[in-house]
Design a protein that fits this description.
Length: 441
Amino acid sequence: MQLSSKQNEYILNATHRWNIKSGAVRSGKSFVDTAYMIPFRIRAVKGKPGLNVILGVSKESIERNVLQPMRELYTDKLIGTINNRNISHICGEEVYCLGAEKISQVAKIQGSSIKYCYGDEIAKWNKEVFQMLKSRLDKPYSCFDGSCNPEHPTHWLKEFLDNPDLDIYLQQYTIFDNPYLDPEFVKQLCKEYEGTIYYDRLILGLWKRAEGAIYKRFADNPEVFRCEIVDQIDQATEKKQFRKEDVVSIELAIDFGGNKSGHAFVARGYTDDYRDVIALASRRIKAEDESEDIDSNMLDKLFCDFIEEVIEKYAVFTKHGDYVEYCNAESVFWDNAETVLGNSIRNAVEKRYPWIAVKPAKKRAINDRIRCTTRLMGAGRFWMTEDCSSLQAAFTDAVWDKEKEKDERLDDGSTDIDSLDAFEYTIERDMKYLIQEVDDV
C-alpha cells in the first residue's frame, strides 16, 4: 500500500482534536483515512469509554465512500456492513454509521460521549449536526478525522476551519498532489471543469464564490456546440453530424412557468452508451397577451404538437398502418410542482402518443444538474441543433446569484430558468451514467 508524501504528512501531523483535509476530488484525501487513519484511531481508543462514529451525508454514501474501500483492503471479516441499529463492526469494535444531512438522523447519539468520529463530505452536512458533534467530543482523548471538498468562502465549515483559537490541523489538497492518478485522466478532468467554479474548487481545492456566467464555455462560443442530425454523414463537411439512427433515445420535458409566465419544452437525444447528449429542440411558450394565462387545453395541444415536430424531424420509427411498432422517442417528463397541469399533459400525450411513457420529473439537486451539464460541455459530449434557440439563450444568460451566500442560479425572471429546468429533467435520472463522478465529491 503506497501513500503519497501528502498522505504521509497527514499521518505525522494529525495529532489534534480536529484533523481535516480539504481540497480537490481524486487527490487522495479519503484514501489515507480508509487505508490507515480510521482503523488506527479505532484501535487506539479500544476499551475506553465513548462511542465510535462515522458520519456522512447518508448511510449509503458512508457505505460507498468509506466502508467499501476499507473492505477491499481489510476484507469483510474486519469491516462489516451497517445493520438495522446503524452499527458496523470495524476491527472488532462497534461503530455507529449515521447520515448527517438532517439533525433528526443523528438524534440517537445525542447525549452520548464520542471518543472517535470520522466525517465524510463534511461541507454537505447539516450545520446543526456539526454543532452537536462539537459538544459530544468531550473526552480528553476524543478526536475527529474528516475530509471535504470546498464550497463558497462564507460556508459555516470554512468559518470553523479559519478559527485560530481551535485545535485544528487542516491539510489542503489540489488534484496534482496525487501522484498515482493517470496523467491523461487529470488532463481530461481539468478540461471538463475549465472555466467553471468547479475548476477552482474541485481541481485547485479553493474555497471560491460562484460568480458570473454558469456555463461560461458555452456562453463564450455557442457555435462550438452546434450539430446536425442527418440521414447520411457528409464526409466533406466540418460540421458535427449525427445520423438519425445513431440517436438511440429521445426524451422530452416540459417545465411549467408561474403565473403569467412562459412554459418551456425541450427534447434531448442520446447516442449509444450515453456518449453524446444532444439538445434536439426547444420552445419557449408565452401568451401573446401577457395579461392572460395559457390554459391547460392550449398547453396540451402546443406540447403534443412539439412532440410531433420532434418525431417527424429527428425520430426513427416504424409503423404498420396507425400502429407504431418502434419509435426512439420514449419518454416525457413534466414539472412535478404542478400536478394538475402535469396530469393534463400526461392524459393528452398518452392519448396521442400511446407508446410514450409520461412521468413526473425527479427534480434532483439543481447544482448536481448544473455540474453534470458543465462537465458534459467540457468533455465535448454536449451538442445542440439549430432548433434550440430558446435553450441556447438560456445557457448563455444563466448566471449565479451574487446576492446569495450559497451557490444558487439567479431566478428573478431576467433569465430563462424554465428551459434549463426542462433540459435537466431529461438527463437527471441518468447523471450517474453520464458522469460517473457526479455524486463522488
